[in-house]
Amino acid sequence: MSKKKLFIKTYGCQMNAYDSERMAEVLAPLGYGVAAEAADADMVILNTCHIREKAAEKVFSELGRLRPLQKQKSESGGRMMLAVAGCVAQAEGEEIVRRAPFVDIVLGPQTYHRLPEMVAQASRAAGVALVETDFPVEDKFDRLPESRTASGSTAFLSIQEGCDRFCTFCVVPYTRGAEFSRPVAGLIDEARHLVAGGVREITLLGQNVNAYHGEGPDGATWSLARLIHRLAEIDGLDRIRYTTSHPRDMTDDLIDAHGTVDKLMPYLPLPVQSGSDTILAAMNRHYTAESYCRIVDRLREARPDLALSSDFIVGFPGETDQDFAATLRLVTSVTYAQAFSFKFSARPGTPAAVLDAQLPEPVKSERLAMLQELLGVQQTAFAETCVGRTLPVLFERPGRYAGQLVGRSPYLQPVHAEADPALIGRIVPVRITECHPNSLAGVLPSSPVGDALMKECA
Ligand code: SAH
Ligand code: SF4
Ligand code: F3S
Asked: What are the E-state strand segments in 259-337?
């Protein structure tokens, strides 16, 4: 029986989501169970993101909201321990201690295996913040618990940390450190455990995941493609995804894998950031609009039903109307099923933050609105092409209405359908009948689920 309660609030990318689960696991042996909300918790961890200005500011306002709760707790003789983890902790550890001296623990993403020790230390000494933001020599994955208990039918698996690409706008190489690929054997083990626990779909994570080059059991260096082929051999694992990829690291063997590995889902986030070669060079992206489009063509040759998503930054320093027009042209020619777009945010310590020709906010806002309108039209158009098709849906959980389940299409769209709860954790053909801005609705075919119908699925 757990006596203490833990609440973790996660910001940012899926790697943080994965790390939050690992932190919960590493604290479980200390008697921490999960709290439904911060107010009930003896320990609150904010797992933070530093990628854009707003993301970091959110952390300080959340700390402001937690402070009264923490005070209340100590006035009633208890204690709420507050920890800040993640990329803001890494980048601004000292600033956190200065602006929020009531924080007990500050720890960077590479130090989570040290959390139990830090909690024990902080329990003894209230009022002194412990800060741990080194990049330790040991591998955090080696020190974190070997396997984890799966709690659903989909899971993330971090296969790589850090990034060596140094795009001029990006904080990740500073907050996550140098690129490090986990050895293959540990990943296969972890994937097997997940599948044994009921997981059917695994998303391989890394900030630049296709630069993966881990040590194989044969002593050779394995590429992401080789790892995917190996994972695809695991019985019971039906779907594999990976995110996020750098276009420059889309190697031939990986492009081929999209044509040869059925379990690899036909949906790929491939951030382009800009369609202007001048801006791409200033971003240090090492590709051109044309070479990006060639990669897309080759991917679509390998897997004709591939749907793409992308990330965009508008208003990078020096971006002209012509540069921005080139981005709109690229979007029009590639066509995306889904996209994320952002205004450039000058991040302290990155080369782009100190470039001349920073653009005024209204220009950035106007460009963002134009780009988002175009991307929105494409997203809707893609969703409409799904209507009338029968797609294999992995049901994950009950929906909002009684009798309804929610699952994911191969293209990662949420799909709602009336279905027996016994189908949770199973992949079932669903005839798509409607599309909404961010989801699809469908019906289960009344005919028995047969091979013929499965074959009809994309
Ligand atoms: N590793 C991924 C990106 C991770 S960050 C990749 O290389 O594609 C997620 C997205 O945030 C980026 O793709 C980019 O579009 C956006 N982003 C990163 N830094 C930014 C900044 N300084 N301002 C605005 N958007 C940014
Ligand atoms: Fe950041 Fe991605 Fe560039 Fe790495 S590849 S520096 S994570 S944008
Ligand atoms: Fe944010 Fe760190 Fe992920 S900056 S996007 S949480 S790697």
From this structure: 267-269, 307-314
Neighbour-count burial for 286-308, b at 16+ CB within 10 Å, e otherwise: ebebeebbebbebbbebbeebbb
Partner residues linked to 398 by β-bridges: 405
User: What whole-number distance in Å separates Cα of residue 328 and Cα of residue 234?
Assistant: 41
Please compute, for residue 140, the number of CA atoms within 13 A of its CA located in the half-sphere on the CB side: 25
The single residue listed with the structure tokens 């139990």 is: 116
**Mean pLDDT rounded to a whole number for the chain:** 92
Taking alpha carbons only, the member of 138, 116, 144, 118 closest to residue 129 is 118
- Does residue 87 have its Cβ closer than 6 Å to ligand 2? no
Structure token pair of residue 96: 């956190």
Residue listed under structure tokens 């669903």: 430
* CB of 195 sitting under 6 A from ligand 1: no
Residue given tokens 């779909």 in the structure block: 201
For the stretch 353-358, contacts whose Cβ atoms lie closer than 8 Å and that sit 24 or more positions apart, written own/partner, are 355/168, 355/282, 355/317, 355/318, 356/317, 356/318, 357/317, 357/318, 358/317
Residue 283 has φ and ψ, to the nearest 5°, of: -80, -10
The amino acid present at 193, given as its one-letter code, is H
Q: Cα-flanking dihedrals φ and ψ of residue 197, to 5°? A: -85, 5
Distance between CA atoms of 170 and 18, rounded to whole angstroms? 21
Q: Which residue's CA is the nearest one to ligand 2's atom 3?
A: 167
CB 422 within 8 A of CB 408: no
Neighbours of 217 (CB within 10 A): 11
Q: Which two tokens stand for residue 31?
A: 């008697």
184 CA from centroid of ligand 3 (Å): 24
Instruction: From 16, 51, 287, give the residue whose CB has the most ligand 1 atoms within 8 Å, as the site to mutate.
Output: 51
For ligand 2, say whether the CB of 246 is within 6 Å of any of its atoms.
Answer: yes
Ligand 3 binding pocket mutation candidate from 23, 48, 51 (most atoms within 8 A of CB): 51
- Atom 24 of ligand 1, nearest CA residue: 344
Contact of 34 with 5, CB cutoff 8 Å: yes
What is d(CA 146, CA 113) in angstroms, rounded to the nearest whole number? 12
Tokens of 406: 């929610």
Please give the pLDDT value at position 209.
Answer: 97
Question: Largest Cα–Cα distance of the chain, in whole Å?
Answer: 66
Interval 173-182: pLDDT, tens: 999 999 999 9
pLDDT one-digit tens code per residue, 210-264: 999 999 999 999 999 999 999 999 999 999 999 999 999 999 999 999 999 999 9
What spacing in Å lies between the alpha carbon of 457 and ligand 2's midpoint? 35
User: Ligand 1: which residue has its CA nearest to atom 1?
Assistant: 207
